[in-house]
Amino acid sequence: MGVRDEFLARSWEMPGRHWKERPGLVGGLDLRAGGTWLAVDPEAPRVATVLNGRGRMAAEDGRASRGELPLRLAADGKPGRIDLPAFDPFHLVCAEADRVRMWSWDGGTMVERSLGPGLHLVVNSGLEGEGQLEGQTEDAYMSARLGHFRPRLEEAARPVPGEGPAGEAWGAWFPLVNGDGLARADHRALLPVLDLGEGRVWGTTSVSLIALTAGGVRYDFTAVPGDPASWGRVL
Question: Does pLDDT of 144 surpass 80?
Fold first, then answer.
């Protein structure tokens, strides 16, 4: 599951094959920088996603877009040689049918780890919120989110998506990824919306659900977070 939180005014396009130099990849297109927040290679099969991290920001001159990273990872299965100081901090997750790996860059050090079988939740403060700071409002919200949704996801039967509509394919997880009945202003919300003033509204703009098997990919997507009827199948 991938939840994209961003300023609502930032322009983007629905998932598709948007990159001529990487014609096999599928993902949503960020129109500002040309990259993506989540990319899928259905032939591999492989999925990669990026989250903003914490730490020292890159210099303004020469800063690279983190939206390039999921494309690189989905295509190659590894970050390869990248100019790390050009990127703001990030968490980069790559999943294949038999393994999941995560890279975290804080502006000074890149850490790679393998994630074993089971449920793993990654937020801006890291895996399971491990880097959260006491007294920071954003971290308090993420902690509340983890506290509510981790036990709910653990209790729900693990989906084994096949054919059929998203609600049927994702079973007990489906109402959870549609918000679990929480108001979007609730501090625990999976799909938040926050009015930051001066016309700036930040919140969840889309949700992706992806299952990988040795034989292929199931990729469902909604651009209307919280609306069960809005889901469509991409792959």
Answer: yes
Residue 159: is the preceding peptide bond cis (ω within 30°)? no
Give 24-73 pLDDT, tens digit per residue: 999 999 999 999 999 999 999 999 999 999 999 999 999 999 999 999 99
Model pTM greater than 0.70?
yes
Residue type, 228: P
Q: If DSSP codes are grouped into helix, strand and coil, which group holds residue 226?
A: coil
Contacts of 136 (CB under 8 A, 6+ apart): none
H-helix or E-strand containing 218? strand 216-222
Q: What is the Cα–Cα distance from 149 to 154, expressed in whole angstroms?
A: 8
Which residues, 6 or more positions from 3, have their beta carbon under 8 angstroms from its beta carbon? 190, 191, 204, 207, 225
The maximal CA–CA distance of the chain, rounded, in angstroms, is 48
pLDDT of residue 108 exceeding 80, the answer is yes
CA triple 121-227-30, angle to 5 deg: 65
Q: Where are the beta strands (DSSP E) in 24-152?
A: 26-30, 38-41, 46-52, 90-96, 99-105, 110-115, 122-123, 126-127
